[in-house]
Amino acid sequence: MINKGEILSTIQMIENENLDVRTITMGISLLDCVDTDINKSCDKIISKITSYAKNLVKTGEEIEAEFGIPIVNKRISVTPISLIAAASGAQNYTPYAKALDYAAKAVGVNFLGGFSALVEKGMTPNDRILIKSIPEALSETDVVCSSVNIGSTKAGINMDAVKMMGQIVKQTAQLTADKNSIGCAKLVVFANAVQDNPFMAGAFHGVGEGECVINVGVSGPGVVHAAVKRLGDASFDELAETIKKTAFKVTRIGQLVAQEASSRLGVSFGIVDLSLAPTPAVGDSVARILEEMGLSNCGGHGTTAALAILNDAVKKGGVMASSHVGGLSGAFIPVSEDEGMIAAVNSGSLSIDKLEAMTCVCSVGLDMIAVPGSTTAETISAIIADEAAIGMVNSKTTAVRIIPVEGKNVGDSVEFGGLLGTAPIMPCNMGNAEKFINRAGRIPAPIQSLKN
Predict the structure, then answer these.
(1) 160 and 278 in one domain?
(2) The pLDDT of residue 160
(3) Are residues 282 and 389 located together in one domain of the fold?
(4) Residue 35 included in any domain
(5) Is the same domain home to 253 and 140?
(6) In sequence order, which residues have a C-beta less than 8 Å from that of residue 90 and are 6 or more positions away?
(7) What pTM does this model have?
(8) Is the pLDDT of residue 1 over 70?
(9) What stretch of H or E contains 139?
(10) Number of structural domains in the chain
């Protein structure tokens, strides 16, 4: 049971430290929307989403008003569409994306995730069709997000899919060039993707999930930053303990919102995702937390260690505050969405290579990174492969959301707006990975996959 007075005692965090609940995400199973007729299948999808989620936004707004807790986004995740579309016989799944977009707009949510495929060990014909449909689907919709899982600790890395995704990212950038290649901001390539992630763009409703659930993603970099600043020059033990206690308070708010939303909507409570999700606002940055720990600048030596402390302490504090913790849960380091990360890139202290090292200990991976539009598909595939290898060997979720912005070069910046922020164009390593990427097959699973 949650003491509401306990939650409301943290109201100063909301007023002064940018605390919010980043998202209430309703996960909806579409398994009963399969049909051999694509039009009938799309109609079933629209009907089901608009039925289950018709009160999602309203309920979120009521909880905001009643408890004074900002809920920034209301979102939906659905069963990976490659599974739903397989029976239709269609050779292009863009109509499914348009149906999802229509349903999402009808109920008023900010984003809908699940135009997805799970291909960590191989690709079925319908998986290939979905992946090839991604550029058109994302260019012709507004709020639909796409993800593809290309590797896992148990299965290894599907390098055929990795090669394909480099090409898909490039095509998506080209088809949305008139909007700063923003289609790529709605596309994530995963290793070890989780089935209950409430955050976009990688959310989908896994086949192991129930019919309909509520997952909540909390935030709070500003709250943690303020707590670390008040602590001053304390030991690492005191630092970790302070972050744990702060994460506990933040997670209790997420637990309250999750319970209230699931009760009022009459659907199951899924999980609370503990991730510290930054925004472009000053005072809401993960990078500034790392600097407050004692680094002169994010990206300098010591950054990976500082991030490891933060990530671990957030999880330890959060798991004590919620009955069900899931999703990604940790610290996000998206460049364009974090004011401190942007400053670090612009100062020259933070590179893609350093970000890759940081992803070994953070919540996800290379996120919201803009690179020159001339970056080759093979280079993008190689970046994806590197991140997938980190995830595979370390049994953690890693991801790549990279944006080769058409017409932009190193030194330029691009404005995406809203939570997506502003991205400085970052240089890629000049090495050529074309021969490596063009090898066919799978990278075998590591020895630690044999745990039975």
Answers:
(1) no
(2) 96
(3) yes
(4) yes
(5) no
(6) 38, 129
(7) 0.92
(8) no
(9) helix 125-139
(10) 2
